[in-house]
């Protein structure tokens, strides 16, 4: 016998009550100075919270290649490695989409806008953007260098 929707009571759903509140996790974390390059080590300098913690999370997300590290879920990180060697105009337009896609996966981030992408070398891009948080706050002036 297959289930059918004939005996489903819509009023049952309306009568359900939730006896719990959904709360956001605290954002307090270690302050990290991320060292780029082989042989360099990142260091930790105390604790940060709120906007600074989110800024750090944003920079960590866009500096972690997606699908490479087993410790992270498939929603974490950014896909940039396949842009290496592509035409610069394509890479400049695609990097915006990929940063937005990577950051929207974080439930603290609502939108990414005001992108400015400039070429700084033969295969380097300087990207600046603004993040709108789920609470409606703006985090402006986030900058990163992307090798393509």
Explain what the structure shows:
With 148 residues, the chain is an alpha+beta fold. It has one domain: Nuclear Transport Factor 2, Chain: A, CATH 3.10.450.40. The chain contains three helices and five strands. A hairpin with a 4-residue loop joins β3 and β4. The longest helix is centred in the middle third of the chain and has 17 residues, at 88-104. The chain is globular and about 65 Å long.
Could you name the key traits of this structure?
3 helices; alpha+beta; two-stranded antiparallel sheet; 148 residues; 24% helix
Rg over CA atoms, rounded to whole Å, is 21 Å
Q: What is the CATH architecture assignment?
A: Roll
Task: Give the CA-based shape.
Answer: globular
Helical content stands at: 10-25%
CATH topology: Nuclear Transport Factor 2, Chain: A
Level-1 CATH class name: Alpha Beta
Count of individual domains: 1
Q: Main sheet, how many strands, which sense, barrel?
A: 3 strands, antiparallel
End-to-end Cα distance: 57 Å
Structural class: alpha+beta
How large is the share of residues in beta strands? Answer: 25-35%
Per DSSP E runs of 2 or more residues, the count of β-strands stands at: 5
- Widest β-sheet, arrangement of strands: 3-4-5
Number of helices: 3
What is the strand and helix layout of this fold?
Blueprint: H1 10-15, E1 29-33, E2 43-48, H2 50-61, H3 88-104, E3 109-119, E4 124-133, E5 138-147
Antiparallel strand pairs: 1-2, 3-4, 4-5
Briefly say what this structure is:
This protein is α+β, with helices and mostly antiparallel strands and 148 residues long. Helix content is 24%, strand content 28%.
């Amino acid at each position: 016998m297959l289930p059918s929707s004939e005996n489903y009571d819509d009023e049952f759903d309306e009568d359900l009550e939730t006896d719990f509140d959904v709360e956001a996790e605290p954002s307090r974390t270690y302050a990290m100075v991320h060292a780029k390059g082989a042989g360099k080590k990142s260091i930790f300098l105390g604790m940060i919270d709120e906007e600074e913690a989110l800024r750090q999370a944003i920079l960590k997300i866009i500096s972690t290649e997606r699908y490479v590290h087993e410790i992270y879920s498939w929603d974490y990180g950014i896909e940039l490695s396949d842009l290496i060697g592509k035409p610069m105009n394509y890479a400049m337009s695609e990097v915006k989409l990929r940063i937005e896609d990577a950051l929207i996966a974080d439930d603290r981030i609502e939108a990414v806008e005001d992108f400015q992408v400039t070429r700084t070398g033969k295969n380097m891009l300087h990207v600046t953007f603004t993040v709108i948080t789920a609470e409606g706050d703006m985090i402006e002036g986030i900058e990163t260098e992307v090798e393509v």
